[in-house]
Structure formats: structure tokens, C-alpha cells
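task queued by scheduler; priority normal; single chain, no ligands, no partner chains; default sampling; output format set to C-alpha cells
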Amino acid sequence: MKKFVTVAALGVALAVSGCGKSENAAGGPVKREAGNWKTDVKLVKFEVPGMPPEMKDGMAKMMEGASGMDQCFTQEQVDKEDIAAELAKGPGNGGECTWSKKDIAGGKIDIAGTCKANGQTVDMAMTGTMEAKKSDVTITTKGKVPTGGDMEMVMQMTQTHTGPCKAPAAT
């Protein structure tokens, strides 16, 4: 089940790491604004045949734990962001993705493909919007679980620019 959780969380990892650059309708880049960004993650749907309720609850708590996360992006980091390059890398730990659709234009994100990690293969789709101060992406992951049957997980991830980066607390 640990392998499943790793692959299922892949969408969040990709979205958090990469959704910073898309092309606007005029052909220029839509860039995330430098500063502090708050990420909220909501588990919309989580269906895994035969999974005990306590494991489902644990997954929901893991997603809730990702909510409220603050991340500081400097101007240099924002300038270097490239979602296409991030998607090409695939997930960490040797995973890889093959994208059948990668439409990132006009502030819209519409991506679909197949990702492999830890010996599992899942179909993944990400749809939503990306603006300078807010992104809202729905990530759908579907695949087979090791115990048999089909799993489906749908997450909604919203990132909001909350202002300048906060200075580290004095110790």
C-alpha cells in the first residue's frame, strides 16, 4: 500500500513543484508572482477497493497535512520556473511520466498522461487555472491497486499568493 500512496501523491508533488509557468493568450508567459504562497489541498474523492477505513482516513489526513503549507518563491526562482521541464522529469525516486496531452496556455492547465513509479502505473490528469497570484488545479489519478481492483483519487489544490516572503523567525 505504501507504493500506492507514493504514486497517488505524485500529482500533488508535480503540481506543487511545477505549476508556475504557462503561456498566455498573447503568447507570453503567465508567471507566478514572487513572494509567499499558501497551498491548500482537498481530497475530493478517494476510492480503493478493499482498503480499510483507517487507511482511507490516514490518506485524507495526509492530504489535510499538506494544506496551509507556506512556501517562499524568490524572483530568481520564479524566473527559472518551467512547468514543461518539471513535467518531463516525472516524479522523484526514478519515476517517469509520458504525457498524451500537455496544454498549458492562456492561464489554463490541461495535462494528461501515464506515470510510473515504484513498479506501479497510473493514469493522471491535471486541469485548472494558473494566474500570477492564484492557481487552482484538480488532479485525478486512476490505476490498479496491488490487491486488485481500480482506484481513483481526485484532489483539488489551490495555491494563493499571500504577500512578500516572511522573514524567518529569530531563534
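post-processing summary
- Strands lie at 21-23, 29-31, 35-47, 69-73, 96-105, 108-117, 120-130, 134-144, 150-163.
- The mean pLDDT is 75.
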